[in-house]
């Protein structure tokens, strides 16, 4: 397994998408995918097609909204933005992830005691 | 939670925008690709390179689309729709198989749905009125048992009055004498109408209000102020032309003017109660004396207080009953009090629950056999589809997916069968409703294909889908992919699990058929015995009619006696009337019970005295009914009011109380409530008459002379040599000449009276017979089909055996042996199940004649014969296989 790429845990992609939209405002699908790859410094293995499954899921839950618009190079594109409900959800999930990451960090840095 | 629901809803919506969403996704991904290509070109890649890189980044387009669909739609439904389409294609491709399976299930479901309409009509119908489960029906418990149900006996006025004033758990309590007849005169026409006398708050207790007008006032419970009546919707509709202005008008009831004050709504109909009009219930001074405790005539209903429970009410009423026993041991010793909720009471006292349980069990078995047949068909089909399934499994279909697919097919067959079954049930219920008209109470219950029947049919269809397809589906999916792919083309014998399942099916069908046939056979035999037993009198050519003398004209017994004599004399003049008699109760149709003692025997306590049937008859009764006189004499003209009292007893009476010694000249004393007991001499012994035509008993009976104790109600009997119905107009004329305002009720031949009483039994027997035949036919088809299929599967094997020298006889024996083995096991199981049936039936039905052991033998022989025949035909076919062509055809 190539060391450079990370498999995504269930649900993490949704959180990344929410955070990206919260930070960047309105974006189209490609923009979201590219942004996540850049931020992860290409560590995330993102089959870009899967991003659309995540986007439709988040839309169904009412956490993001979508509207058709025109992209920079004048083509028709769908633009996504985070909703109020989505921001609330993001705050909750982010707090959860930070706590989990903290715990994981402490657990994994445990020293062996007197074998 | 709300998010989840919202998501589910959105997913559901997406299902309907499938194509649109696919197009949107395509557009989005095209844009995605274009942006990626642009960016790659900006990085300096050649256009081709840029495109290649972008495509790699984007990943498989089809997969992306699949994941998108998965994320937005409902997987379960998608798969289900797929299976449905696939299954439908399969069913259309095999019309023969589809028709056979659907038709079999349709038959099974149709009989179930039709019979369930009775459950829905009789057992599930809510009584009218507000919160009927808060209304209790309070009844007496007869220590002597009764003809029907001992614990729903009527209540005496003194008990009712005590309970009403002393109990603490009821909001209100009401009583009704539901078995009255009112002579209603309107526009010069008089007719006898079934009526009920009810206490003022009767309707309030039941929670119903008149559709027009008002209910009774409290003060109308007093004599003199009680000249008010309420009409039923039916009577209002039939005889008053639904005219609302009838309310407030005056009609004549029993020769007295009464004001119509209200009309009850059409839906106010309690099962088993058929009054057409209601009058106030008035208690006379004698009704509240201790002697009236024996005069149990009231239905008592009470509404519980909001916080009170049925248990509390029962405890309190039980206490009341015990107190009455202590205070009035003569009348109340042994009697108890029971309470049931109104819905429970109506169903229980109607006595239809047990017959319905039997019928539903029978049709349940018919359905089981039908399901077994369809399971056999599906099994055979799964056999021919093994290769197809193996290919699907090798292409990655999971076992669960295959099972689900096969279940979906089963479900489709079952739903088609359910649809067809409902169609058949539509006619079945019509047919049934036409048959269920044998008395007013039964015909008042409408049988329709209602929501209950629909839901039941749906549930039955789903159940049959699982019953008939689960086992074949599991066994088909268990098959080994490799061996199936290889062997399917070579027609090898079916897998072990297949043939085991087949054997279970055949054995089960034989067992179920035997059990069902035995049960039906026993019941049919019992019904036949009831139908064909000796009544004790001649039923044919006897015309009967009921009369109720009103107290306005015939208050004193002497007036009643004079009228009856005059009437009989007038009727005797009718041409064709050979002899005429009046009786308090028609023979074998109802009775009155009275306790008695024999002079010279040790005085026993009142509560322990034996009770006998007590008939009041005019002089010619025995001649008219053709009840044989065995000893002594019948009544004579000289046995009049001033002569010493005489009675005639039946053979059973002489047998039981005089040990078959000659009872002539002995004195007995009947204790009729409200009368001073007198000693009467036994002057004759007559033959036994059945207590009730649908019963098997002969009870001891005493006949009193009508002139010595006249009654205001009686039945006329006219013996004729002609068709009894041809005398009806003359009879009416004769009655009108004697008293124009006196209507005849229930004018019909004695055989009609008996037919009405047994009506249900005949229909019951016919249905049982029909279902038994249906079950046997289905089982025969099923057994034949399964054995044929097994022979077909083994063609290859049999051909090899024969090619190697096996004789046709040996092959035949091999197949037959398999059939015999299954028949032996099946009949053993069926017999074991059927053995306790006579005891079950005796517990369910009052006085059913004992089971006839011959039924077992006959059913066993028939079942084995059918099983052997169903096996023999395929066996003969197997023995005629031509090995060369059979092996060549592979």
Q: Please, could you describe this protein's structure?
A:
The complex is a heterodimer of chains A (115) and B (890). In chain A, helix 1 packs across helix 2 and helix 1 crosses helix 4. Chain A is an alpha+beta fold and 115 residues long. Chain A has four helices and three strands, in the order H-E-H-H-E-E-H. In chain B, helix 13 runs parallel beside helix 17. Chain B is built from 29 helices and 21 strands. In chain B, the strands form three sheets. Chain B has a six-stranded mixed beta barrel with strand order 2-3-8-5-7-6. By secondary structure, chain B is of the alpha+beta class. The chains are: A alpha+beta (115), B alpha+beta (890). At the A-B interface, helix 2, helix 3 and strand 3 of A face helix 1, helix 2 and helix 4 of B.
- Report the principal-axis shape of chain A: globular
Main beta sheet of chain B: strand number and arrangement? Answer: 6 strands, mixed, barrel
* Greatest interface by residues involved: A-B, 25 and 32 residues
If helices are DSSP runs of H or I spanning 4 or more residues, what is the number of helices of chain B? 29
Q: What is the count of β-strands of chain A?
A: 3
What is the first-to-last residue Cα distance of chain B? 60 Å
Question: Helix/strand-derived class of chain B?
Answer: alpha+beta
Oligomer kind: heterodimer
Any idea what the radius of gyration of chain A is?
Answer: 17 Å
Strand content of chain A: 5-15%
Biggest pleated sheet of chain A: 3 strands, antiparallel
Quote the distance from N terminus to C terminus of chain A: 32 Å
Low-confidence stretches of chain B: 488-493
Number of helices of chain A: 4
Shape of chain B: elongated
Number of E-state strands of chain B: 21
Task: Give structural attributes.
A: 115 residues; alpha+beta; three-stranded antiparallel sheet; 3 strands; 53% helix; globular; B: 890 residues; six-stranded mixed beta barrel; elongated
Spell out the blueprint of helices and strands:
The complex is a heterodimer of chains A (115) and B (890).
Chain A: H1 12-24, E1 27-28, H2 29-39, H3 50-61, E2 64-70, E3 76-82, H4 84-108
Antiparallel strand pairs in A: 1-3, 2-3
Helix pairs in contact in A: 1-2, 1-4
Chain B: H1 2-15, H2 18-42, H3 47-58, H4 61-72, H5 75-93, H6 95-123, E1 135-141, H7 157-166, E2 170-186, E3 189-198, H8 202-206, E4 212-213, E5 228-231, H9 233-239, E6 250-253, E7 256-263, E8 277-280, E9 299-304, H10 310-327, H11 329-332, E10 336-341, H12 342-350, H13 353-384, H14 386-394, H15 399-435, H16 440-443, H17 451-478, H18 481-487, H19 496-531, E11 542-548, H20 557-572, E12 577-583, E13 593-598, E14 611-617, H21 621-625, E15 629-632, E16 646-650, H22 651-658, E17 667-671, E18 679-686, E19 701-705, E20 713-720, H23 728-738, E21 745-749, H24 750-793, H25 795-803, H26 808-834, H27 837-844, H28 854-879, H29 883-888
Parallel strand pairs in B: 3-8, 5-7, 14-19, 16-18
Antiparallel strand pairs in B: 1-9, 1-10, 2-3, 2-6, 2-9, 4-7, 5-8, 6-7, 11-20, 11-21, 12-20, 13-14, 13-17, 15-18, 16-19, 17-18
